[in-house]
Fold this protein.
Amino acid sequence: MSTYASLKEECCQANKELPKLGIVDLTFGNVSIVDREREAMAIKPSGVDYDALMPNDIVVLNLNAIPDNERNLDLEAAKLEGSMRPSSDSPTHLRLYQAFSDIKSVVHTHSRNATAFAQAGMAIPCFGTTHADYFCGEVPVTRPISKEEIERHYEWETANVIVELFEDLDENEVNGTLFHGHAPFVWGSSGKKAVETAFALEVIAEMAMKTLSLNPAAAPLSQAQLDKHYLRKHGFNAYYGQVKNA
């Protein structure tokens, strides 16, 4: 029996939600889940079709794995459980967990509208309250990754570019970004929540694209209205939704 059965089950179910929500094509994208107490990360295996994915296919890696000499991360050596090759994005996920201590799940998709903004090198402005319900401000885009970073360790440095961007941002208030020329990465407090945010990001990106097509000079939402919508759902005095029983 698997030592990480519940972690692998959560990871498998979260991954299988991506095609159901229409935010992945083919085998693009992946979800990972972290168990910080056991210092383990579960992630989708590379190139496996979502329909065929089973909990036993999920690969579990050592959360503390790092590259040797910043050039090679031996994913086979980092395996705690699993027979398949983990996602090629595994180093990115590992580095994000190491940098952002509060997050429980990372989702990477190539959802079409959000990816279009990433390919254009454009942040997604907060044009309306739908956006403000999920992100406290624009969804930022990273700088382009350099040739040296690509050659050193592309997937690991992808995360480092994201971490650099968030030096002046709160990853708990803006829980996602667009990687320049690539696609979105988002994160959350659970696999379910992170997948929901990835779906919301795609909806927001589509709305923003339509807004700009109707009015290229459209102004972002006022800071007062943005704050009101974000904080009524996420703030200390949030009042959106139902009170949860203790």
Notes: The chain has a mean pLDDT of 93.
